[in-house]
Design brief:
GO terms for molecular function: hydrolase activity; metal ion binding; nuclease activity. Its cofactor is a divalent metal cation. It is found in: Nucleus. One of its GO terms (cellular component) is nucleus. The protein contains seven helices and three strands, in the order αααααβαββα. With about 180 residues, the chain is of the alpha+beta class. It folds into two domains: about 5-80, Arc Repressor Mutant, subunit A (Orthogonal Bundle), CATH 1.10.10; about 80-165, no CATH class. The protein has a three-stranded antiparallel sheet, with helices on one face. Helix 1 (about 5-15) packs across helix 4 (about 60-80) and helix 2 (about 30-45) packs across helix 4. The longest helix has 23 residues, at about 60-80. It is globular.
Length: about 180
């Protein structure tokens, strides 16, 4: 990623991720937070690698990930994460058909877990314990043929089944009657 692009992203997210130093510890600078979030989302390295690479603790990385993804959705989402127009959707559909031979595909959807520290309350913690054996929140994305995000949803408890995650948010495909 060019430095100018990174600087632009940091400037847009800084108001959401900036914290004040306390007498007990220094705040992680916004550029380090944004770098860690981008690194984790793009490269997919585990938390230990991100901790080592950016010199921050594991619980801090988990907090930064939640905060960073939320900042991306709030600050950049309305401008960059919008459902395509009808003509753009036809282009996306044609792209999927060329690549896969499948007609009328309008997006690729996938999800993953973002590991979190167990909530202190056992009653709440059980909701976040996922099928892979750790506490997490769910991240779901829809991409077009170029890998650009069409939609992002994050924050449901890790125990939430896939069907509920998909139904949590409706994606209108040209008509209110057609919900994916």
């Amino acid at each position: 990623m060019p430095k100018s692009t990174f600087d632009f992203i940091v400037s847009r997210l800084a108001s959401q991720v900036c914290r004040q130093d306390t007498k007990y510890r220094k705040a992680v600078p916004p550029d380090v937070k944004v770098g860690a979030v981008i690194h984790r989302l793009v490269i997919g390295h585990n938390y230990f690698h991100v901790c080592d690479r950016f010199g921050i603790g594991e619980s801090t990385v988990q907090e930064i990930m939640r905060e960073g993804v939320e900042a991306i959705i709030v600050e950049l989402g309305p401008e960059y994460l919008k459902w395509p127009s009808t003509s753009e959707m036809i282009k996306v559909s044609n792209g999927f058909q060329l690549r896969s031979g499948l007609p009328n595909v309008q997006g690729a959807i996938d999800g993953t877990f973002i590991r979190i520290k167990a909530p202190p309350s056992k009653e709440v913690a059980i909701d976040y314990y996922n099928r892979k054996g750790y506490h997490a929140i769910v991240l779901k994305v829809i991409n077009d043929t170029d890998g650009c995000f069409l939609d992002i949803s994050c924050g449901m408890p890790g125990s939430t089944n896939d069907k509920r995650v998909l139904r949590n948010r409706s994606f209108l495909l040209g008509s209110p009657e057609v919900i994916c």
